[in-house]
Amino acid sequence: GLILAIESSCDETSAAVIKNGDTILSNIVASQIKSHMRFGGVVPEVASRHHVEQITQIVEASLEKARVTMEDIDAVAVTEGPGLVGSLLIGVSAAKALAFANSKPLIATNHIAGHIYANQLVQPLQFPLLALVVSGGHTELVYMPEDGVFETIGETRDDAAGEAYDKIGRVLGLPYPGGKVLDEMAHEGKETLNFPRAMLQEDNYDFSFSGLKSAVINTIHNARQKGDDIDPYDIAASFQAAVVEVLVAKTIRAAKEKPIKQLLLAGGVAANKGLREALRNAVAKELDEVELIIPPLSLCGDNAAMIGAAAYSQYQNQDFAQLSLNARPGLLL
Ligand code: ATP
Ligand code: MG
Ligand code: FE
């Protein structure tokens, strides 16, 4: 099965052609980061306008790169949510138009499922598995007893990990999104400050990052007020150490308590070097017979290839959407 997939939930306009849910024939991603940078974050109206301007040529480019035409395509998949309503609507409208005009089935796919299934483009998935989803809007542990079945066993009670990165980046005056830059800075700095590790000892799989975020921001403000020198690289290293320690510890604990074959890392923050390394080390040391899959950097951030991967099991189950499909900004797994 050949799936044309479209992703437009936030500030990336993307289209991909995916074969059998595991092979990328094309994956075109147009990032809008430059347009949002001067505002220090994603401006929804600006994002929608860019999606409208880009979507047709991105879809065409993805077909061309894959060397296929709409006739070869078996289904059109699109992110129906979660995300920004205006952004989602552009992708949903484009997918509906393509499906209708070419008499192809339409598949409505969950963006977070997409982040998880990005791993299927790396290795065949084996169930049961556990996925740590860390992105701009989500931080959760998802248990999958079988293909297409999602149980969220823990999640953040406040900020997502990526959100904490981006807000601290903003206070430090770093370009948006701050996550990538802070990660690089963390590797240049020393862990001189001991920031809180929230909920580390608690007997659940939930997370909390707002206390950590406030502690870091207060430290920066206090130092500025007193005219003290603080090294932003040390702040980055200390903050990242706290985030990574909690994420890894809770994930390993869940992985030990669930009968899993694989552990997957997913979402934009999966690009974090510190997290990738710490998780690899912890799995090697503490989990026997669990296969760890970490997506390449190109599949961590938002992209349509992951939507095409997630859509494949829906395609096999003939889980098709109506042409009346609407965007669902608050969609849960
Ligand atoms: P969601 O997937 O929850 O709907 P989103 O799609 O906006 O949200 P993603 O695109 O999946 O989020 O991820 C973007 C986030 O990843 C941003 O917060 C960004 O700062 C963060 N990020 C990207 N690279 C890194 C990195 N190397 N270290 C930490 N964070 C990173
Ligand atoms: Mg983005
Ligand atoms: Fe995302």
From TrEMBL:
<dbReference type="GO" id="GO:0061711">
    <property type="term" value="F:tRNA N(6)-L-threonylcarbamoyladenine synthase activity"/>
</dbReference>
<feature type="binding site">
    <location>
        <position position="166"/>
    </location>
    <ligand>
        <name>substrate</name>
    </ligand>
</feature>
<feature type="binding site">
    <location>
        <position position="111"/>
    </location>
    <ligand>
        <name>Fe cation</name>
    </ligand>
</feature>
<feature type="domain" description="Gcp-like">
    <location>
        <begin position="23"/>
        <end position="308"/>
    </location>
</feature>
<feature type="binding site">
    <location>
        <position position="179"/>
    </location>
    <ligand>
        <name>substrate</name>
    </ligand>
</feature>
<feature type="binding site">
    <location>
        <position position="183"/>
    </location>
    <ligand>
        <name>substrate</name>
    </ligand>
</feature>
<feature type="binding site">
    <location>
        <position position="272"/>
    </location>
    <ligand>
        <name>substrate</name>
    </ligand>
</feature>
<dbReference type="InterPro" id="IPR022450">
    <property type="entry name" value="TsaD"/>
</dbReference>
<dbReference type="InterPro" id="IPR017861">
    <property type="entry name" value="KAE1/TsaD"/>
</dbReference>
<feature type="binding site">
    <location>
        <position position="115"/>
    </location>
    <ligand>
        <name>Fe cation</name>
    </ligand>
</feature>
<comment type="similarity">
    <text>Belongs to the KAE1 / TsaD family.</text>
</comment>
<keyword id="KW-0963">Cytoplasm</keyword>
<keyword id="KW-0819">tRNA processing</keyword>
<dbReference type="InterPro" id="IPR000905">
    <property type="entry name" value="Gcp-like_dom"/>
</dbReference>
<dbReference type="InterPro" id="IPR043129">
    <property type="entry name" value="ATPase_NBD"/>
</dbReference>
<dbReference type="GO" id="GO:0002949">
    <property type="term" value="P:tRNA threonylcarbamoyladenosine modification"/>
</dbReference>
<keyword id="KW-0408">Iron</keyword>
<feature type="binding site">
    <location>
        <begin position="133"/>
        <end position="137"/>
    </location>
    <ligand>
        <name>substrate</name>
    </ligand>
</feature>
<keyword id="KW-0479">Metal-binding</keyword>
<dbReference type="Pfam" id="PF00814">
    <property type="entry name" value="TsaD"/>
</dbReference>
<keyword id="KW-0808">Transferase</keyword>
<keyword id="KW-0012">Acyltransferase</keyword>
<protein>
    <recommendedName>
        <fullName>tRNA N6-adenosine threonylcarbamoyltransferase</fullName>
        <ecNumber>2.3.1.234</ecNumber>
    </recommendedName>
</protein>
<dbReference type="GO" id="GO:0005737">
    <property type="term" value="C:cytoplasm"/>
</dbReference>
<dbReference type="GO" id="GO:0005506">
    <property type="term" value="F:iron ion binding"/>
</dbReference>
<feature type="binding site">
    <location>
        <position position="302"/>
    </location>
    <ligand>
        <name>Fe cation</name>
    </ligand>
</feature>
<comment type="function">
    <text>Required for the formation of a threonylcarbamoyl group on adenosine at position 37 (t(6)A37) in tRNAs that read codons beginning with adenine. Is involved in the transfer of the threonylcarbamoyl moiety of threonylcarbamoyl-AMP (TC-AMP) to the N6 group of A37, together with TsaE and TsaB. TsaD likely plays a direct catalytic role in this reaction.</text>
</comment>
